[in-house]
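Example: Magnesium chelatase family protein.
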Amino acid sequence: MLKIAKVKSCAVLGLEVYPVEVEVDIGRGLPSFSIVGLPDKAIDESKDRVRSAIKNSGLEFPDRRLTVNLAPADIKKEGPTYDLPIAVAVLLAGGQISEIAVTKDDIFIGELSLSGDLRPVSGILPAIIAAKEWGAKRIFIPENNLEESKLIRDLAIYPIKSLENLVDFFRAELFIKPVFGEGVNNIEDIVTEYDFAYVSGQESAKRALEIAAAGSHNVLLSGPPGSGKTLLSRGLPTIMPPMDEEEILEASKIHSVAGLLHRGDSALICARPFRSPHHTTSSVAMVGGGTWHANHSKTAKLPFPGLPAL
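Written out as structure tokens, the predicted fold is:
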């Protein structure tokens, strides 16, 4: 049994991703479970999720003093994405997973339910892009996050259904076929509810929008209610060039962080995004952001993508 186990994960802060090392120490003393390393409330609550998930997966939770460190400690950790790496590190430190089964090039991301099933999380796409840049060989993610992860080539992605399945995989009792992303290929023709061709009349406005689309200019439409401003604006993306792979990845990454990607066959953002804010929307709500200070205080709120980003 290892006294200290280490596995790798990542922290998604806004649109930036940072490597995180999850360390678990099993020591002598009264049974306890503490998490350090600037965690937020969701991570603090993961103690109960991890404990129940391990027990309900037919595994043994160590009845000793457990200390979990999320390094580096100066970066705020937020959300339930650390449930899976914490559980793996606990099982690794307790000897229930062989230390040779988990390599230094493995990355774990995922939220655990009390039954041990993995639930999808936001920000998978930027996390996988960063993992590839760091030289990761394998990344273990929730099964329901698989579609958006297929955008990244040359990385072995393991879709995991439950903690029990993952442990069986490490014990060579279950085979999980890795998925290698295909990139942005075979994009079907985009079917949109609004099309620029649907607008009848308004020739001057359509001419202005065509010039704006051709030259990437700003344009201001002004007129009485019902004159077609919104319909013209909604149809504008249909006369613009299709998004290339870099633009699709960038748009999909932003929507992934914001939790706006559909988890299914249509995980990609292939159409140029359109946003129609209400006229009473404040400038702060439109621009987005938050109080993310240099000292990374525990009460700071991470920047959230605003309308310009989406």
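The chain is about 30% helix and 15% strand.
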